Amino acid sequence: MLTIPHGEAETPDQWEAIPTFDLATQPVEKRGELSGEWGFAWHQQLNPATLAEPAESKRTVQLPDYLNNLIHPEERNGRFAQGHATYFVRIKNLSDFYSRPAITMRYVSEAWAAYWLFPDGHTERLGGSGELATDPENQVIRDHIYVLDLPRESNDGILVVHLSAYHGARAGLYGLVKVEEQETLIRSILGDLTIRAVFFGIGLFVVFQNLLLYLRHRSDQSFLLLSVFAFAGIARSAFASNYVTYFVNQPWFSIPAVKIEYILILWPGIAALHYVCHLFPWRWNRLLLSTSYLILAVASIYTLLAPMVEVSYYLLVYNALLVLIVLAAVCVVIHGMLRRHEMAFFFSRSVIPLIIAMLNDIVAASTPDYNFYFAEYALILFLFIHTQRQAVQFVTALRVAEHLSNNLQREVELKTSELSLRNRELEAKHQRVKLLSQTDHLTGLYNRQSLDNRTKALFEQAEQSDSHLSLIMMDIDHFKPINDRFGHQVGDECLVHVASFLRGLNLRHKDLIARFGGEEFTIVLPDTSIEHAQHLIEDVCTRLSKETVSGSHYEIQLTASFGIAERVISQAPSYEELIQKADQALYQAKQNGRNRVEVYQSDTPE
């Protein structure tokens, strides 16, 4: 362990050779900034009594800067500056401008200790991080102490920082050291912590929101990929801002934490590439993803196995790989824009601030006098915006699905009712068409085709049950003279009148009336004996003879002749034979004077 030596104190007059910041001469806007010349000694822990004495080991350097840039090549251990050093600078007129002066040591690494040398020669330890050592095995690194209180009563003194660095190529006082009022400094740090806490909260919200959306809709992997993207981003931010090492403040965890931070440089970029490859399909996506994950695997193995000083030396390589991965993601988005993908245009607009922030952080990581990082904030805002857009689309789709689900039964019933109505209309049309195909267009009675089909079926049923079946052939008397005298229109009126008369006979439902052709009609009476049929038809003949057809012409007296044949009596083997025998009886009625009924007997003339 290194300890600060004591000797005979130097007087303030002897301090004139020490690099000095006089707060009284600094511009107001830059007052308190300790940026410029510092005293420096490599591989030495200087005695306060000898700070102003000339020595080859002491020199003046410009800070802030990385330790590796301050050491001459011949003083290095190979490519890296590994060892311990002393930084010192005089600060004048401190209490004239600050009642409770303090400095932030955020940008100091690795192990360090800060002291204040008073003009009277005594020394006060201000604080430190870890334990100083002359070899890497004994060096202990702990979480930084960000705020160091300077002595309130001292108006003049020397700030001395002892540092040992063995694990990082970018160690040293690499950030701006500035004297401020303690209250202002603490307020600034608390403000920064509050902002970070808010953004961490937003990041965690994005992670869990996307996980919940993915669990609700597992078929869409964009929610899962966006959640992984957000987790990678906040993990990178947590390690880069030393939040993790603050909670796990153990020496053994310091180096692994930094190595994980370096690995996390690449992971958010690869998670972003995976997300855009899912959004915008392209034939090169599989190759891009495979290559990027291979890079991550190789970089992770190298980072975990290589010495930390070597890993930190190649920070620019890590950043260059990140830029390549981001460029691959940009190419995927551009391809989506060329394919007119709506999401690609929104993505391209929202990613521009993120790319600018990422480039800014790369510059900040490579420049010792510029330490303003904001990529983590831009990333979380980018993820939050995309998550809300995805969530709005998901909720909209969910509401549509819920609306369809809630109204599905009613819509199905409505469609079913409409379909049933259409079916009934189609059935009615079908029945009308069927009726038209089965009926005579003039009289509305069954036509000859329907008569043949139905009579054949009735005849077969009668044969099977050995029952009666009577068939009557009817012919209007003197119909041709009516046509010749009054015209066919009047003849049609007579046919319609007779059809209406026959429909009004109040026959049974199973009885059949049809127009046989011309002025001939047929009546079929199932389960009716010859005697009953004869009695019925004689009544019909009598009633018809009393019918007259009136109109714009003279009244026409109508009569008809009837021939009856019964299946059993006539011994007809088929319905065609039965019709023929009834027609023979009709012919006999015509021969016997018309307006009469004749029954077919076996001795009826052929």
From TrEMBL:
<dbReference type="GO" id="GO:0005886">
    <property type="term" value="C:plasma membrane"/>
</dbReference>
<feature type="transmembrane region" description="Helical">
    <location>
        <begin position="346"/>
        <end position="364"/>
    </location>
</feature>
<keyword id="KW-0812">Transmembrane</keyword>
<feature type="transmembrane region" description="Helical">
    <location>
        <begin position="260"/>
        <end position="280"/>
    </location>
</feature>
<dbReference type="InterPro" id="IPR011623">
    <property type="entry name" value="7TMR_DISM_rcpt_extracell_dom1"/>
</dbReference>
<feature type="transmembrane region" description="Helical">
    <location>
        <begin position="222"/>
        <end position="240"/>
    </location>
</feature>
<keyword id="KW-0472">Membrane</keyword>
<feature type="transmembrane region" description="Helical">
    <location>
        <begin position="311"/>
        <end position="334"/>
    </location>
</feature>
<feature type="transmembrane region" description="Helical">
    <location>
        <begin position="193"/>
        <end position="215"/>
    </location>
</feature>
<dbReference type="InterPro" id="IPR000160">
    <property type="entry name" value="GGDEF_dom"/>
</dbReference>
<protein>
    <recommendedName>
        <fullName>diguanylate cyclase</fullName>
        <ecNumber>2.7.7.65</ecNumber>
    </recommendedName>
</protein>
<dbReference type="GO" id="GO:1902201">
    <property type="term" value="P:negative regulation of bacterial-type flagellum-dependent cell motility"/>
</dbReference>
<feature type="domain" description="GGDEF">
    <location>
        <begin position="467"/>
        <end position="602"/>
    </location>
</feature>
<dbReference type="InterPro" id="IPR050469">
    <property type="entry name" value="Diguanylate_Cyclase"/>
</dbReference>
<dbReference type="GO" id="GO:0043709">
    <property type="term" value="P:cell adhesion involved in single-species biofilm formation"/>
</dbReference>
<feature type="transmembrane region" description="Helical">
    <location>
        <begin position="287"/>
        <end position="305"/>
    </location>
</feature>
<dbReference type="InterPro" id="IPR029787">
    <property type="entry name" value="Nucleotide_cyclase"/>
</dbReference>
<keyword id="KW-1133">Transmembrane helix</keyword>
<dbReference type="Pfam" id="PF00990">
    <property type="entry name" value="GGDEF"/>
</dbReference>
<dbReference type="Pfam" id="PF07695">
    <property type="entry name" value="7TMR-DISM_7TM"/>
</dbReference>
<dbReference type="InterPro" id="IPR043128">
    <property type="entry name" value="Rev_trsase/Diguanyl_cyclase"/>
</dbReference>
<dbReference type="GO" id="GO:0052621">
    <property type="term" value="F:diguanylate cyclase activity"/>
</dbReference>
